[in-house]
């Protein structure tokens, strides 16, 4: 009896709405991460006129808060799903909403509220952003591992591709706005990140899933002897 081989179901994979949600969340979170890592110190120097020692502290704050957020959010999401209080899909949708909408609100607040006369208001916003950002790990990243276990490598590569595209988009946006000497450069940058986060959250809320997809076993093809 000829063994059957399975090939990656590219058409079904690329047209899957849960996959679209994962990719959109990857892009949104990649854009936010790239913006914070690359341009947060510049923003605080230009817009808030902070001294170097405080710039270092404020830059560290959201990433330190992420550690705390992930430590709490991950086990809690697992607990409510394991005990049957919520399905895994519903638990991840709540976590993703917490991450996407929370990050969107924090980014929008960060774009408009802190000023050079009140730079201290940036610190609690950055801490809030870092804490809620952790929801994405319990949201779209969980879906990445569960909707098609045999193709986790393929989906991870696509996620990395969209994250890299987000990094390029973030850098290109800041560079373009700087060259044009736009007076509202930073509200535009952080506002764009906020809109992307909210859009990703809405899409995942409607179409995200952790259920194993019908195409996850691949397409059978008979091998030749």
Automatic annotation (TrEMBL):
GO cellular component, one term: membrane
Membrane topology, as annotated: Multi-pass membrane protein
Keywords: Membrane, Transmembrane, Transmembrane helix
Signal peptide: none
GO molecular function, one term: transmembrane transporter activity
Location relative to the cell: Membrane
Any one GO BP annotation for this protein: monoatomic anion transport
Protein origin, superkingdom: Eukaryota
Transmembrane segments: 12-35, 55-73, 94-113, 125-148, 155-174, 186-207
Protein name: Membrane transporter
Phylogenetic classification of the source organism: Eukaryota, Metazoa, Ecdysozoa, Nematoda, Chromadorea
């Amino acid at each position: 009896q000829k063994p059957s081989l399975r090939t990656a179901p590219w058409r079904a994979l690329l047209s899957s709405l849960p996959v679209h949600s994962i990719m959109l969340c990857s892009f949104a979170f990649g854009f936010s991460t790239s913006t914070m890592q690359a341009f947060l110190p510049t923003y605080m120097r230009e817009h808030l006129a902070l001294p170097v020692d405080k710039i270092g502290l404020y830059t560290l704050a959201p990433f330190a808060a992420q550690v705390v957020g992930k430590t709490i959010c991950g086990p809690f999401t697992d607990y409510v799903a394991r005990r049957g209080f919520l399905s895994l899909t519903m638990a991840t949708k709540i976590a993703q909403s917490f991450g996407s909408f929370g990050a969107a609100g924090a980014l929008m607040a960060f774009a408009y509220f802190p000023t050079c006369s009140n730079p201290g208001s940036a610190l609690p916003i950055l801490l809030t952003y870092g804490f809620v950002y952790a929801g994405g790990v319990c949201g779209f990243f969980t879906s990445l591992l569960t909707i098609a276990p045999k193709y986790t490598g393929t989906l991870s590569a696509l996620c990395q591709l969209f994250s890299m595209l987000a990094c390029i988009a973030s850098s290109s946006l800041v560079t373009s706005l700087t060259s044009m000497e736009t007076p509202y450069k930073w509200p535009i940058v952080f506002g764009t990140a906020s809109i992307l986060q909210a859009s990703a959250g809405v899409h995942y809320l409607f179409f995200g899933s952790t259920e194993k997809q019908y195409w996850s076993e691949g397409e059978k093809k008979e091998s030749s002897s």
